[in-house]
C-alpha cells in the first residue's frame, strides 16, 4: 500500500498536515487542498474559524470534502470557489500529501470529529459547499508511554483476538489463547520465549521507598499540556494491575540510580545506589546487556507491594515499542 513501504511515519505526516492548516490560517488563507501527486483523489478544506476550547487549547472549525480533483477542476463552480473575488487571500492553496494513506488518516480524523459537532451549529456556506461536512480539529501529538501501555494491554487470544476462554500458556503464563487450536498454531513462534522463561533465573528485588523525595517523570514524548503526576513521599504502594501474571518491565540506569517501570506506567520506582546498593547493582547488571548499556527489558512478576521477581537472564524475543 502506498506509504507503508517507503519508511515514512504516516501519523507524523498527518500531524504535519495539521500544522500546514495552522500556517495557512496564520497567513490569512482559508481554503486549501491535500492531494497526492499523480493521484486524482484529494480533500478540500475551508477553515471557518479558530476558537478556544473549553478544555483548553485551540479548536479549528472547518468544512471538508473528499473529491476527485481531476474531474472537479473542469467544473465552473469549483473554479469560482477556488478563485473567489473576496480578496487576494481567498484562493485555494494546494498542498501535496506524502501518501494516500496520509489523506485517509486525515479524512478519518475529520470524520470522527464531525460526529461531535452540535447539530445546532450551522455556519454560513457557499452553494459549492452545500455537501461539505462540518468538523473541527485540535492539536494532536505522539502517544505518551502511558497511552501506549493501555493500547498494548492484553485484548484476548493472541491469534484470533477472542475474549472467550482465556487460557494461559502453562509453561510461561505470559500469553493468552482461546483454544488449544490457537495455541498449536502459535507454538512455533512462541516456543523460544516459553522455553526461555521456563528455564530462566528469577530473583526478587526490593523497591520499597527509603527517601523523602517528591518524584515525577518527564521525557520528550510528554505533551506540553499533559499534567505531570507528582508522587509524594510515603504515598503508598502502586496498584497491582498484573495480579500474579508475568509482564514486561523497563530498566534504565545511570551512575547514581535506576528507574524501573511497566508499560502501563502503573508503577515507576526510583532506586538510588547510595540507599539500595544491592537492588541498584542488580538493575545495573541487567541494563548493561541492553541498549548502550543503559536500559533493558525483562520479564517480571509482582511478588508484593514493593517487590518484583525478575527474570534476570532472559530477554524478550522482540523489543517492545516503548
From TrEMBL:
InterPro entries: Znf_MYND. It comes from the Eukaryota. It holds the Pfam family zf-MYND. Residues 157-194 form the MYND-type domain. GO terms for molecular function: zinc ion binding. PROSITE patterns: ZF_MYND_1 (PS01360), ZF_MYND_2 (PS50865). Keywords: Metal-binding, Zinc, Zinc-finger. This is MYND-type domain-containing protein.
